[in-house]
Amino acid sequence: MSSPIVSHRHDILVMFDVTNGNPNGDPDAGNMPRIDPTTNRGLVSDVCLKRKIRNFVAQFPNERNPEDANAFNILVQQGKILNNETGKGIKAGTEELVKKGTAKPTDKQKAEEAMKWLCREFFDVRAFGGVLSTGDDVLKGSAFGQVRGPVQFTFGRSCDPITPIEISITRCAVTKPEDEKKERTMGNKHIVPYALYVAKVFVSPVFAERTGFTEQDLELFFEALQHMFDHDQSAARPEMSVRGVYDFEHIGTQGENNSAQNSREAKLGCAHAWKLFDGVTIELKKNDDGRAKDYPESFDDYVITDNWAGDNPPAGIKGVRLTRRTDPRR
Length: 330
Fold this sequence. Notes:
Blueprint: E1 10-21, E2 25-26, E3 32-33, E4 35-36, E5 41-44, H1 46-59, H2 90-100, H3 108-121, H4 123-128, E6 129-131, E7 146-148, E8 151-153, E9 156-161, E10 165-171, E11 185-203, H5 205-211, H6 215-227, E12 240-249, H7 259-268, H8 273-278, E13 280-284, E14 302-306, E15 323-326
Antiparallel strand pairs: 1-11, 1-12, 2-3, 4-5, 5-9, 6-7, 8-11, 9-11, 10-11, 12-15, 13-14
Helix pairs in contact: 1-6, 2-3
């Protein structure tokens, strides 16, 4: 049996931290960690976080269910030609339909079918959307050439100001014959000693219907979200961890007595996202003198308070009204 399309709105809060690493370098600033110059708080771009999700799904894809049309390929990959005429590229979608003869290569129906094929074939198009009208095929200039996905990230932002540090490093080998007599060469790297970041994710059932984003896709997305740094270690990012994922699922307030209105509420949302997010507070611990610490050195320096725990959540939010997908103290 095929997985149903996501029909409930989800507002998600993600906490992740970095220790002695560069979570997201800024190419306009010599690859230093991104920073908000007005507050000195660190930033991690939305596309950086989407990249981690894509990498995880490419490494650990779900097996394709014979009864489900959706596949779990990734369209946007490093070094890949998006308009490749062979293999898993954008043009493959239109070529596939030409072979089947389901529509003429120039009509509107053909463009729509090509878009739907790409959504079925590629998890990242189904989840995040994308610009598909990048070639000279039928999608160019078509309303179906741009797809808005149901899953959208905000920028990650550090809870406190950060102080990036430039570290000088040495290398015992040289790269040029003329430098053969040198004992070593010099280089540098930029790190953040420690920072806790918060990002927000929104899942829209309205756009899920358009791309065919299913409950199975959503579960895979949550799995990727919780493990997106577990296989992403590098010299620049040796230690990054997801500390908490709070999933606010809107299920409606009407119950079975008014299923149509309940479905509408679940799709529209039962509470403002900002109100739900404000219910999770993140504060620095206090020193012995009662004052807050000047700066964090580890995750243990923070106090995370879930004000929605117990019987306090707004009506229409699932479970204990709030599902915490990951224990923030794990």
